[in-house]
User: Which sequence fits this backbone?
């Protein structure tokens, strides 16, 4: 009896450890990645994977309505910072923190934010020091997990950080807390200060790359509408080095946690700018409104006739 339950426990532990057992390949002494990731499944076989190189020359022009950020300026409520063993992550449980517009075709709620040191996306092959991912799911789905099973169910905003002489005070809030959980993957701590998603975003949010891709960690689900802003945010070299001191699940320093760039294959890469309001005739809008109201009225009248 005792032996059976012990065997069960061991099997359970092995299965659960295996589920999270993936790593970023360690770079060689020249800082060059010696081998590609081989994470299996869709990560290896997918044709719509992320990240990619955002090459201006490969992109087509697009114009979308402006993004609309709801409650992005509010500090995250009861913010917890987690060392996931692959990154540091801040979860959001407030369903009122949402994005709309930007050609997304719906409303998406913020689930979590995490960082990659060494950016995942490159712009014209240039890598940035840090990349923030703000992960959202379409409110038509009950959870991020459910949305991740559907094409375009997840919207991730990618923010690139360039090295600057000036430290970033908002990143410092994260690093101050990260120091306490640095050596303990799986551990979380209350954020030692206020942090609003808005202050981690670039000033110019009207120019960005847009494409359909995947989550950049196993199981690499191909459900993500990607937005990577071309304007970047400053962070000091010393701050980037503090991220590198975070330990992974093997107790080693997580020196970098970016996945290698994936082929674009048959996808469109869009270089998007904001819909230029001056070039568009706003006189058309009230006329369209009047037409819609008329149409609704007609439908109501018709439905009344039917009953
Ligand atoms: C954002 O940046 C783009 C490209 O540099 C520029 O054309 C555009 O005018 C900027 N928008 C704002 C609101 O500053
Ligand atoms: Zn990420």
Assistant:
């Amino acid at each position: 009896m005792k032996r059976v339950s012990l065997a069960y426990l061991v099997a359970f532990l092995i299965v659960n450890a295996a589920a999270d057992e993936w790593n970023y390949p360690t770079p060689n002494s020249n800082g060059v990645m010696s081998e590609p990731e081989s994470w299996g499944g869709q990560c290896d076989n997918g044709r719509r994977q992320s990240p990619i190189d955002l090459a201006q020359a490969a992109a087509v022009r697009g114009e979308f309505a402006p993004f609309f950020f709801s409650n992005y300026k509010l500090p995250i409520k009861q913010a917890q910072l987690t060392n996931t063993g692959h990154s540091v992550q801040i979860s959001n449980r407030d369903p009122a923190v949402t994005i709309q517009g930007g050609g997304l075709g719906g409303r998406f709620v913020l689930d979590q934010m995490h960082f990659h040191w060494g950016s995942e996306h490159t712009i014209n092959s240039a890598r940035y020091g840090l990349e923030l991912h703000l992960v959202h799911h379409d409110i038509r789905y009950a959870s991020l997990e459910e949305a991740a099973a559907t094409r375009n169910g997840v919207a991730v905003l990618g923010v690139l950080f360039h090295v600057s002489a000036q430290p970033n005070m908002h990143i410092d809030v994260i690093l101050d807390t990260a120091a306490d959980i640095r050596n303990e993957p799986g551990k979380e701590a209350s954020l030692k200060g206020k942090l609003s998603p808005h202050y981690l975003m670039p000033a110019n949010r009207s120019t960005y790359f847009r494409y359909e891709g995947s989550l950049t960690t196993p199981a690499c689900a191909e459900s993500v509408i990607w937005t990577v802003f071309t304007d970047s945010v400053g962070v000091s070299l010393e701050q980037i080095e503090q991220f590198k001191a975070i330990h992974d699940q093997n107790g080693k320093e997580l020196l970098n946690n970016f996945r290698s760039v994936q082929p674009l294959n048959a996808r469109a890469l869009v270089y998007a700018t904001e819909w230029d309001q001056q070039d568009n005739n706003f006189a058309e809008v009230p006329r369209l409104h009047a037409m819609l109201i008329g149409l609704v009225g007609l439908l109501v009248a018709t439905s009344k006739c039917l009953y």
Notes: The longest strand covers residues 108-117. Confidence is low (pLDDT under 50) at residues 9-18, 281-287. Residues 114, 116, 133, 216 surround zinc ion (ligand 2) (CB under 6 Å). Helices lie at 2-19, 41-45, 144-147, 169-181, 237-244, 284-306.
